[in-house]
Amino acid sequence: MIESHNEDIFTEPKSSATSKLLAAGAAVLITALVFTGYTLLRKRHAQESGALTPPAAAAEPRQPPKALVMADEPLLQGGKTIITGTVKNTSKEKLEGLAVELELKRRQGGALETQLVQLEPAQLEPEQEARYSLELKAQEYGSARLIGLKSNQASLAFSAAPGQKRPAERLESKTVVVKKPSSGKPGEFLNTADNPARVP
Asked: What's the pTM?
């Protein structure tokens, strides 16, 4: 009797097929609900983020350049840097109150400054040219860059080109004459504490 009782303990309980089907159906239903909820949340997030971004501004048509600005290579004279250039009116209209806008970079700290430099003459008829010039302290500014052309404080479309090259530096030729030392004994030093000689 003890043996028959032990056999009953180790036998597996019989499971029904309906409970397995119910579990599988519940798993499929939960998966479908999670997937549907995720899809709805993504769609709503896309609509909200699309509503926050402003519509792309219509690109303004690009205007043809009205002038050609030629920037010369900077010239160093003494402790000054001289920035010059030429502006040519390439349009068919008269341009007035002309000035070039330069971006200057300081040597210490690298701060950027903008400066307007008036043209001489400030009014240009079609095909006429004008010059601009700016003197800076070489120890204060490290670079200058052309960033704009203004006509009565309004920006003008322009094209840029390199201007005049820096003139070649002239190096003075020096002739060094080396005097032949007085003849001494072979192996004798020419420059000693007792007999100092100047070395050229």
From this structure: 0.53
Number of domains in the chain: 1
DSSP 49-70: HHHHSPPPPPPPPPPPP-EEEE
* Structural domain contains residue 52: no
Residue 112's domain spans which residues? 67-162
Instruction: Determine, yes or no, domain membership for 195.
Output: no
One pLDDT digit (tens) per residue for the chain, 200 residues:
445 555 555 555 556 788 888 888 899 999 999 999 899 988 888 877 765 555 555 555 677 889 999 999 888 888 888 899 999 999 999 999 999 999 999 888 888 999 999 999 989 999 999 999 999 888 888 888 899 999 888 888 899 888 888 777 666 677 777 766 555 566 655 666 776 666 65
Q: How far apart are CA 132 and CA 122, in angstroms?
A: 10
Is 137 among the domain residues? yes
